[in-house]
Amino acid sequence: MSALTVLDVTKSYGTTPVLTGIDLHVPAGTTTALLGPSGCGKTTLLRIVAGFDDPDSGTVELGGRVVAGNGRGVPARRRGIGFVPQEGGLFPHLTVAANVMFGLPRRQRRDRARVAELLALVGLDADLAGRSPHQLSGGQQQRVALARALAPEPSLVLLDEPFSSLDASLREETRRAVTRALAVTEATAVLVTHDQAEALSTASQVAVLRGGRLVQLADPRTLYRRPRDLDVATFVGEAVVLPADVRDGRAHSEVGVLDLEPRTGDGPARVLLRPEQLRLTEPGPEVPVARVSAVDFFGHDARVSLELASGRVVAARLDGRQLPEAGDRVGIEVRGAALPFPLEEPAAEPPTGPAAGVFGLAGEPFGGPDGAPSDLDTTTWTPAAR
Amino acid sequence: MLLATAVAALALLPLGYIVRYSADLGWSGISELVFRDRVAELLWNTVRLLGGTVAVCAVLGVGAAWLVERSAVPGRRVWHVLLVAPLAVPAFVNSYAWISLLPGLDTYGGALLVVSLSYFPFVYLPAVAAFRGLDPALEETARGLGLSTWAVFRRVQLPQLRVAVLGGSLLIALHVLAEFGALAMLRYPTFTTAIYDQYRATFNGPGATALAGVLVLLCLGLLLAELRLRGRRQYARTGAGAARPVRPVRLGALTAPALLGLTGLVGLALAVPLGSLATWLVRGASTELDVPELLTTTGSTLGLAAAAAVITTAMALPTGWLAVRRRGPIATLLERSTYLGSAVPAIVIALALVTVSIRATPWLYQTVPVLLAAYAILFLPRAIVTVRAAVEQSPRLYDDVAASLGASAPDRLRRVTLPLLAPGIGAGAALVFLAVVTELTATLLLAPTGTTTLATAFWSSSSALEYGAAAPYAVVMVLLSAPATVLLSRDARRGMTT
């Protein structure tokens, strides 16, 4: 297994820039998720790494060897990269066994023990070896596709939205089987996804792509707790964004006086909280109060929409045992520190490219010329996958 | 790309010939030949047969398809096969079977009966395929909204069947325009039979070509009309997964009439011709059966058909490949031009090839290559449709995956692309093969002297009223066509596209 290094890769289709200067390092034996909305260029990047497309400029290095760029282009078949496409892409005319062994030299293809071993690796029964792909469920197809990709012991495995076509229940199970197989083989892997929960739970580091740029590369916890900007913050999870006034290192906001992490200078700012940081208490004179406008009950937890005194609506995520009713008046308590952001987005990074619109939803109210604070509640954008 | 262009050029050759020839004649020459009482009579004959056949076939085809796909009529699977089976009987054989039984059928009614019975499966098959593709949820929703079975049919199913029925009707209309054998035997004159008579009388007179021009205009008009009628609407099922099976509509007291109707239809379309053939076979077997002759004819027919199948499928490959892998206006244009070329009746294609080969390449006149070229022009779309479908089944993804697994280009072709395309190529070749076996018109005009096929041997015997001698050839043709028919009845979803 080798490390992957992508340096300053750019790619345009016609006059449309798809990737603009991507730098990415994936250490050997780890899994990196490329996370971004559709159209952000993540699949293009994957295809360039795989060798199905060539970059316009920049280089791709695999285990210290340049495989693309600098006038060199190692063809896909000589890169030793396993590829798991979106729908599995199993050859429909071959059995499961023949699919799994496809990439091995002719002499080894008959080795039944090896087929069973590879199927076991991805958590499948050896009995499936004789089946045709169309006799398998979607999750089984994905696992066979992974076994096929791992069979020639590739230096890198690429997974292109491998779980997006699966049902929610199957997705979780398949995801775990895939993570396990990648861990057992100590494979270096790159996973493309638009699902933040999948990215956070599967990968050891997550690269957020937006409009053909790499916005943030971090491990999942850092990404969730310390997103680089509010766009990333709202993309990787539901966010509560509030205007605040910072005095003596504490933020004075509608939901009370909050600790900040990291600390920031005095003045007006915006602060980010996660819905699970909000707790409900009895309303009292010292406590900020809100009215419950809706309760979405999920069983394991619940999402409570709270209308603050100013009319802004924020979300709280509570465990499902003691829930208020819609219309109740409740007090709000905040646990943990808030993350401060400056009032204006830094002008250095205007959202560009085809994906700008997706993030515009979250970004615009802040950067807007009127700066209307009453619009801030639109930032509670829930990723659809929740 | 180059190959596909060459194929398209060949397909358009007959059209080009008509245009060129008409230009040579000039407007006065054309008007003198076209605006005659005889032409008006032919036009009337052709149009009323066309309209009648399309209407009858649409009613029969859709009705039968509804009974088989949506009602609880007993024996639906058997009926399905029986309703497709008439395709195994070439129209001219059907016509022979009827006229040899009832010599009084040489009227408009007789022609309408025989042609409709031969062609209604062209509507039935796409209608069945469309019914199967319809989401039953829509029908259930409609029923939940309180619609009766008839209202569901009229307001939900029929609108969704439109594309399928239009496609089938177009196919039938083109067949009626091109039909020669069946109508000549019924002595019902249309443009096609008149062109043949002209050709026989004056060999290659301007009269035949002018008539051919009118015929081609009719065909193009049909194609345009269908394009406009079809519109841009598409009916798609939203949501993933397979459609749930439908719960058929109980017929109750109507079961007996439905069964009677189906029996009548199948009886007329299948039992009468087969019975008639059997009668003549038995009657002729004792006196007129010439086994060695039959064997040689079968042999030469199979040889021609095999050669045509190989050549036509090979020609279809580049076009079908381009149409899927290099989507774009040029690929579409190339693909469509082959369809256009084969919408031209066989008689016109044959006429064009006779003239072109006499003028440009006299050494090719009346040789097998010219005949094979005619077959290729006629039947290219059948091969292209299946090859295209096969290419669509093997997206580039498989190529990419195989490459990432270390397979080289020739390796990928051998291990991935060809195995995936093989069924489609095979089916295309089989369809062409079977079409050639029963091809009459072009073969009559283009076959080298001394070469007889089953169709032409049958034709010369039956037009000499030697019905007994003709029967064995007809039986062999029906037997050879049967496998394709079974194939079609199984794979109704793909439908019949010419």
Automatic annotation (TrEMBL), chain A:
SMART domains: AAA (SM00382)
Keyword field: ATP-binding, Cell inner membrane, Cell membrane, Ion transport, Iron, Iron transport, Membrane, Nucleotide-binding, Translocase, Transport
EC number per UniProt: 7.6.2.9
CDD domains, A to Z: ABC_Carb_Solutes_like
Ion transport in keyword set: yes
Top-rank lineage group of the source organism: Bacteria
Listed GO CC annotations: ATP-binding cassette (ABC) transporter complex
Name of one Pfam family that matches: ABC_tran
Residues of the ABC transporter domain: 4-236
Biased composition (Polar residues): 376-386
Region (Disordered): 347-386
An example Gene Ontology molecular-function term: ATP binding
Cited SUPFAM superfamilies: MOP-like (SSF50331), P-loop containing nucleoside triphosphate hydrolases (SSF52540)
Protein name: ABC-type quaternary amine transporter
Species annotation: Trujillonella endophytica
Taxon lineage: Bacteria, Bacillati, Actinomycetota, Actinomycetes, Geodermatophilales
From TrEMBL, chain B:
GO CC term, one of those recorded: plasma membrane
Stretches assigned to the ABC transmembrane type-1 domain: 43-228, 298-488
Record-linked InterPro entries: MetI-like (IPR000515), MetI-like_sf (IPR035906)
Chain segments annotated as transmembrane: 42-67, 79-99, 111-131, 163-188, 208-227, 254-282, 302-324, 336-357, 363-380, 420-447, 467-488
Record's keyword terms, sorted: Cell inner membrane, Cell membrane, Membrane, Transmembrane, Transmembrane helix, Transport
Membrane topology: Multi-pass membrane protein
Annotated compartments: Cell inner membrane; Cell membrane
Name of the protein described by the UniProt record: Iron(III) transport system permease protein
Organismal lineage: Bacteria, Bacillati, Actinomycetota, Actinomycetes, Geodermatophilales
